[in-house]
Every structure is written in C-alpha cells, then in structure tokens.
Amino acid sequence: MAATDPMLDSGADFRTRLQAWLPKIVLAPSFAVMVIFVYGFIAFTLYLSFTDSRMLPSYDLVGWQNYERLFRVRQWDTAIINLGIFAGLYIVISTIIGLFLAIFLDQKIRGEGFLRPIFLYPMALSFIVTGTAWKWILDPAIGLEVTMHRWGWESFQFDWIKDSDMAIYTIVIAAVWQSSGFVMAMFLAGLRGIDNEILKAAQMDGASNFQMYRRIILPQLRPAFLSAFVILSHLAIKSYDLVVAMTDGGPGTSTWLPALFMYEYTFTRNQMGIGASSAVIMLMTIAAIMVPYLYAELKEQK
Amino acid sequence: MGFLDINNVTKSYGAVEVLHKVDIQVEEGEFLVLVGPSGCGKSTLLNMIAGLEGISSGEIAIKDRVVNNVTPSKRNIAMVFQSYALYPNMTVGQNITFGLEMQGTPKAERDKAMAEVASLLQIENLLARKPGQLSGGQRQRVAMGRALVRDPDVFLFDEPLSNLDAKLRVDMRTEIKKLHQKLGTTIVYVTHDQIEAMTLSTRIAVMYDGYVQQLGTPKEIYDTPANIFVATFMGSPAMNVLPAKLVEMNGAIHAEVGSGDGEKHLRIENAPEAYRSYIGKSVMLGIRPEAITDPEGADRNSRNIQALTNMVGVTEPAGADTFVTMELAGKDCVARMRADAEAHPGQPFEFAVNMDKAVLFDPQTEERIA
Amino acid sequence: MAVASSDTAIRSSNVTRTFIYLFLLLFALFYLMPLVIMVLNSLKPLSEITSGGMIAMPREWTIEPWLSAWSTAQIGVEPTGLRPYFINSIAMAVPAVAISTVAGALNGYVLTKWHFRGATWIFGLLLFSCFIPFQIVLIPMARILGLLEIAGTTYGLILVHVVYGIGFSTLYFRNYYAAFPTELVRAAQIDGAGFFQIFWRIMLPSSGPIIAVCCIWQFTNIWNDFLFGASFASGDAAPMTVALNNLVNSSTGERPYNVHFAGAIMAAGPTLLVYIVAGRYFVRGLMAGSVKG
After folding, report:
1. The pTM is what?
2. Under an 8 A CB cutoff, do B102 and C202 touch?
3. What number of other Cβ atoms are within 10 A of residue A114's Cβ?
4. Domain boundaries A74-301, CATH class
5. Is the interface score ipTM higher than 0.90?
6. Least CA distance to B85: which residue of chain C?
C-alpha cells in the first residue's frame, strides 16, 4: 500500500506539489540510465546484428545474414556444444554436491560454523584468481600429475587441460569448486525453513530417514532447486572470465563458450555483425530462463 | 457545517471505486468510530482525512477549511497508528517532539510541551528509552503522547488497541475514554471491534463494502439497526435473524416462525404502520440473544414477553451467563440465560422472548422495516 | 534452525554420522586445497615448483615472489608489478560502490514507500537488467565511452559499474524497505517531515545491515569484474583482475609460478578479507540476489 498517492489539483501550493513530484524526480536518473544503458544498448546491439558491421558499426541492414553465417561458423558450433556440456555438468554436479553438503551439515554437525564458511569462500574470489589457481594445479608439467609421479604413482595421468577433447571438463571442475558452496547455502536455507513438526508427524507415521528425505523434505525444497537452477544456468551462459584465465579458449578453440565467441569475433576478428548476433542469442537464452522466473517472483510479492 | 466535514467523498483505484459517496459531519468534541470488517474502506477513509491518500471526488474540510490539497502535516491533525509507528532509532522523548522539531518549534518550547504530555500520560520515566525497550502498553502511551503534544484539531486513531492483549486492551480503552472526556477533543477512531465502537463512541459509522451502512449513536445502532448487516455485525453473540411470516391473528400482528408441527407464533405489540403491508409475506425476524431468556431472567420493564417452548440444543456456560443454542425455523438460535437457569441439552425448555426488542427486515432489500 | 534443533526429528546411527563427518571434511579439504596451494607456493622459490614440488611445504621460505608480484613483475610489457593496478581497482571500486549504493537506497525507498503506477514495471525492468549477459552491451558501451572521452580510463569503468550495479543495489534496498513498516513513513509525514527528511531521519538509521550487504556485494562484484576491465581499460588503467591475467600470460622466459600465485592472492585479498570480516552479510547478499529477499 502506498504511503501517499497525491491526487492534487491546481489548488495545492508549490511546496506540496514539489513534495509530490520528488519521488519521481529522484527515481528519474536511475530510470534514464536503465533505459539508455540497458534497454537502449540492447536495442542497439540487436540492430547491429542485422547490419554488415565489421570493425566499426555500420548501419546498412543485411537481414538475417549474420545469423545464417553464425550458425555456419564452426567455432559457434564448438561454443554451443561446449556450453551444453559445461552448463549441464556444472548445474547437475553443483546441485548434487550442494544438496548433500546441505543435508549433511543439517545433521546437528559439530563445527558447522567452521565448515560452512570454508565451503562458501570461493564465491568471494574472482574467476580470474580461481582460474589461475586451477590452471597451474591441473597443469601436468608442474601440478597434480607430476606431484603424483614424485610420490611414486608413476602411471598417474591427468592432462585434460592440455587435451582439446577434455579441456572443457577441467573448466567444469573449477566452476563447480567455485559455486557448489553457494548452492549448499541455498539448500541449507531451504532445509532450515522446513517446519520440524511436519518431520515429527512423518516420523509418527513410521517414515525412515531415507523416506523422510525423499517424500517429505526434498519436495519442500522445490523453490531452492528452482533458484539454484536459474542462478547456475545464467552463470553458465555468462561464463567468460574463468575460461579466459584457465585456457584462454584453448587448446586451439576447444574450450570456446558463446561469451568468448562474441568477444573474439567482435573485437579480435572484426566481425561485429556476427558478434552482435551471438550476443543477442545469449540474451535470448538467458531471458527465456530469467523472465518467467522473475515474473513469478514479482507476482508472488505483490 | 460541522467541525470535520466529509462531503460526498469517493475513492477509486483506477476503475475500481472502493469508497462510495461518504457523507459524515463530525461536531467538535465528538468521538466518531468507523467500524466494519476488514476491507470495508474504514482505514482508507481515515487515511484520506489524514491526507495520506488522495481524494478521488468530494471534499474534506476541517474547521471549514477544505484540505483536499493540504499535506498531512498542515492539516493540524494527529494520528495514532495500529503498530504505534514509533521511530525505532529515536528515544521516547525524541519521538514525541519530532513533529514539533519538523515545524521548527524552539527546543525550550518542545521540552515544555513534552513534559506536560509526559506527566499527563505518566510516562516521564520512559523519556530516555528507545521504543524497543518498551512494553506494548507503554508504546501505546508514547504513541498517544506524540499525538497529544501537537494539540491538533482532530485526533485520528487507526485500530490503536488491536496489538494489545485482551486485558490491556480493556484498560487502554478506558484510558482513551477518560482522556477524551478530560480534553474534549474531536476524535475519529477506526476499529473492527464492535465492542470498542460501542463503548468509546458518541457516534458510530458502520461501514461495509465501501458504503456507510448506518450512522448513529451506539444505542440507535444497537437497537434499531438499519439492515441485517448492521444487526449481525454489532453485538456479540450476533443477533438471531430468522425467516418468519407476518400473520394477523385475533386482531394482532404475529410473527410465525417455522412451519408444520414446529410452528410458533410470537405476538408483536405496538407494531409500526409499515408492518401491515407485510402481512401474509415473509420477513426476517431479528432478536438479540439477551431478548431470549429463561422466564425468571426476563426484562421486567418489558410489556411483551412471549413464552416459547423449544428443545434445548447446546448449553455453553460462560460464567456470568449461559448461552443456549436451540433450533428455530431451521436455524441455530442463541439465547442468553442467567448462569443457573435449568436448561439441559435434549430437553424441552420454556424460553421467554422479549418481543419489544424484536426488529423485522425485508428479506429482499435486507433493510429494517419501520 | 528447525531440523537442527535439539528435538530434531531425524536421528542417525554412529556409522552414518562418521560417514557424514568424513564426507564434510573431505569437501572442506577440496575447497581449501587451491587456497593452501596458492599460499604455500607463493612463499617458495621457483625451483621447488618446477621440480614437481607444488603440493608440498616449502623447504625454503621466501617472500621474494610477493615483492616481485607487487612491484617488479612484468605485466604485459611493463615491469611495474601489480601495485599500480591494485590502486586502479581501489580507485574504481570505492566510488562505484558508493554511488551505486546511494542510488539503490533512494530507488528502493521510492519504489516501496512512494508507490505510483508503473513502479512494479520499473522494478521488473531493473531486476532483469541484473541478469543480462554483458556481451549485449559491450559494443554500444565502447562507443559511448569513446564519445564521452573516458574510454580506457578509471572514470569510464566507474560509470560502467555504477550503471550495471544499480539493478542489484535497488533490488537489495527494495526488498529490505518492503519489510520496513510503512506506518513509520506515514507517521513522519503527519509529523511534517519531507521526502528527504524521512529518508535521512527515519529510513537510513535503520538501514545499517542492508547498507553492509549492498556495499559488500557491489565491492565483491566490481573488484572481481574482468569483462568490463578487459574491454574498456586494458592499458595503464586496467584493474587488478586484468593485470593478474596479463601477469600469468606474460610468456617471456621461464614462468614465475610463485609470482603468479602471490599475485593471485593479492587480487583475491580484498574480497577475501571482506568475506572473513563480514561473511554473514556477504552470504545474505548472495541469497538475496537469488532467492527473494
């Protein structure tokens, strides 16, 4: 409910009318910034995606040509397939790890206050830092592999980061390391919100621990699952820094993701039209996930 | 023109009109209570008087000055909120004087006004505390102090007692009434509690669905409710409203309740002329629980006590009284007995019905027939 | 703390509990391992790393890598160390955090307490802007920064981060103020307080926690940003993340891994410090950004 909805006619004095307008005046700069820098820019990029822009923006429309070319470019295929692998594994593994950590932490664990911050601190780090650390840890020449050899496990081999078929999976490892604690925190909040009396009732009904989780608790965590999915998938689609820091898209172009593709085509290969069209596709993908979610949340809050 | 004039005021949100042509004149020193169920528009009306919500059409005037375009602080009103709305970051003293500070009153004057109000409400020892350290009743006093210190033309109360526990609520109710009697201020008070409305007010406006259903003194509202809504909303337990038929027997008008074997006839004396046109038609008969008693407990001043024998359904001893539920005309009907009345579930009992207090409603319009 | 309370409905045997502790400790090690490796390797001579001793305690402790990373390491072409870029990041993050937080607080105040038609729409549009892939704005932003002649400068980055930080800061304050009793605002209106007086005297004194949440979130995001830094300020004005990436990818001669690790910790330091000091608010910010606040 509003604090006030001034319905003033010309009878009100200047001060009164100024007070009535102040909220709008205060909101106006942010609104203008949003309209120009977010939605105006989106419109501009959308427009560019239909032009023959190369190194500099051009305003000559070429229809769907950029999109047609985009889907014929091999690197875009790579980026899309990589995104599928990366997003799928990243979301599933983070969710599983996060869920189990949350459930286990919720068993009246001694030292929870000590463990929880450890699980969560990677979220505070820059992807560049994370990427740097994992890049050298997974480097077969100096990292895990050579250490294992030195410790006597001569046959140990782990050179995925140098293998163009496997490198994308190393990025999954680092990304899961960074985000699964966050998923844990979401699930833990959900678990702590469940009414203990429901669990007692289930116990009276003779449910075992396993049944209790499967039939009573997990169904009640649905909102947490949904939030985790939405947040993780939008992070996956936006992933850029981590790949740059770990593999810089390599070996070759084997770890390109759409975000890398866009950057490379726009700023390095001077194919701005194609770059813009790839950015539009990224936006559409995220919008397809976020818009229904945000709409539902806003509706609920009203 | 009254002291506070509400002239044909409506409120719409977009196309939805939530208050329809409300028209109330409040005299100086009156205690007007707006009562009704939630969503009836009573709080909206109060907020419009305060200036916290705009007026879609019509006029509100305080002391003959139209205030439609005047900001809340310039209307010379004060308001006590349901949650008390004490500023959590300020001390009690700062809370009370914040309004004066905003108006630029010098500190010496503010302190003097604060001291007066604090002694009036006996909260001198709380002035240095923060609202978070106060009990519910203390917060209530501070909220009233904040209103009093401004010496406003009109006090507005928005369900001020609904956050207190039952006992404290009764105490504070008395306190508010005392304050009104002592200071003689004009008050508009919103509540959903019909007992508060009855006990505090000099006049009540019963609201429902954005309409003022009835405006009158507590006695008028209680004894001659304008329609079935007012009749059942005011009073607890609620008034019994039974389908009946008006018939003429032996030269007198009777209300015929029930049909077939269970048919009962209750004579109506001094029937208003309007009843005649309903003879042979169905009506709704309204009888308050306290008008149905055991014979010994019946009102001795009434000249029209009718006996009615019926089966006792459920008895609910409530200490001072015992409530007896019986079935009449297919409906549960509540009677109010003395505590030691010998009514037993499943047994017949002779009830005494005070038909002087009975009212009739038109079943279609639900308006009282008079 | 429903489930974990003393009368918890879920009981488990000692065997299960042992397993649970093992599982949790294992994962604690997994999360700690990269940080420990970074710290240890930033304190040992390069030869110990290149000879296969990355996962081992230093045999010889040295702070040489830290000194080098801070002031002499090769960043791109210049042997400046990370120090100037650290300063760039501070100069970028502090004003950007301050401006976006103030704007978010005012927006949240207006959107919750001075409701007007279309407010929900405006908030919805702001909310969606938090989640757009920034690739969609890179090209026009580069043009605008060029037009404003602040391309490649810290001012440009401040502008970018304020613009794209307002969405989240508004989200925080809006959700926080939505739970703030509107009756207090009404009482203050009747007391004669104006728009800014209400904000300053009534709202702000109760906003401590959300200011902390918002500042921490914005600081972490802005400090950790790489995309905007790399796109709009890759020269002398580059922020710490870009400089770190340049340091790691400067491929002249033998790679000084120990310096890389020291640099990585420097880049992680401020956000990690904030996390250690005010982790509670950081987690709240994370959650408010995902689930509703």
Report:
1. 0.86
2. no
3. 10
4. mainly alpha
5. no
6. C184
